[in-house]
Amino acid sequence: MSTTPRIAVDSADRAAVDGRHIRALAFQAVRMEYLRHVLSELSLTAAGCRALVIGSGRGLPARGLAQLGFEVVAVDPSPAATALARDADDGLGITYLTSPAEELGLPDGTFDLVYCADTLEITERPQAVLAQAARVLRPAGVFVYDTVNRTLVSRLIYLGAFQAFPGTRIMPRGHYAAHRLRRPAELAEALARAGLSAKDVSAFKPRDVRSLVRATRGRRRGTLTDEQLPELVHMVLEQEGSPAVTYLGYAVRRA
């Protein structure tokens, strides 16, 4: 007899459905692809550079940056997520801290790159997050992010499928809200107010939306593991596309 799965963010219980971790796994490959593109675009190398990950969760984006050669600090507001990240660490020398994105408590001008994950679509204070990111960046440092656009399609997916519809729900109700989803133009204005010059926006999406539905339903039923989801969902980058749902972007701190 089937049972309703327990939805729990940042849970150590492998049986629990953690939509935040599912999302991180599905996004990891495209996040790293975009980061490599940004580094190439700006002729930057990771060796000898420091990177900060805001909203690191269980540490996947931080480990990806460390594997590129960065010295990495990872912060997350959840003590549970920080503990899970430390447990999953691969000896890459990452520093894990628990801290809200709006009040980092880190020194000014000490990072060459800041990656903001799982944050801009959650926070009620995006301007504070961007101001903190700009503050800890060195002049000409790079701010990279991914977030969710505010469109009819994104509302159907993030507010409906992911946290309301019984067959595909993977997030606690209320985790996402329409007013916390930001259009690229709105975010560009907020970046400018923080002293960051927006340089790019690139859409990304599942190769096939039907695969995303199958993946979420399979994970809820227990017929798929977290580790099987990325290949099934297969996120693809569309650098020329207009983001219907999710998008990546980067900006540079003005001197």
Automatic annotation (TrEMBL):
Family annotation (InterPro entries): Diverse_substrate_MTase (IPR051052), Methyltransf_11 (IPR013216), SAM-dependent_MTases_sf (IPR029063)
One of the record's GO molecular function terms: methyltransferase activity
Family: Belongs to the methyltransferase superfamily.
Domain of life: Bacteria
Ranges where the Methyltransferase type domain occurs: 53-144
SUPFAM superfamilies membership: S-adenosyl-L-methionine-dependent methyltransferases (SSF53335)
Pfam families: Methyltransf_11
Record's keyword terms, sorted: Methyltransferase, Transferase
Record bears the keyword Methyltransferase: yes
Name this polypeptide is given: Class I SAM-dependent methyltransferase
PANTHER family: METHYLTRANSF_11 DOMAIN-CONTAINING PROTEIN, METHYLTRANSFERASE TYPE 11 DOMAIN-CONTAINING PROTEIN
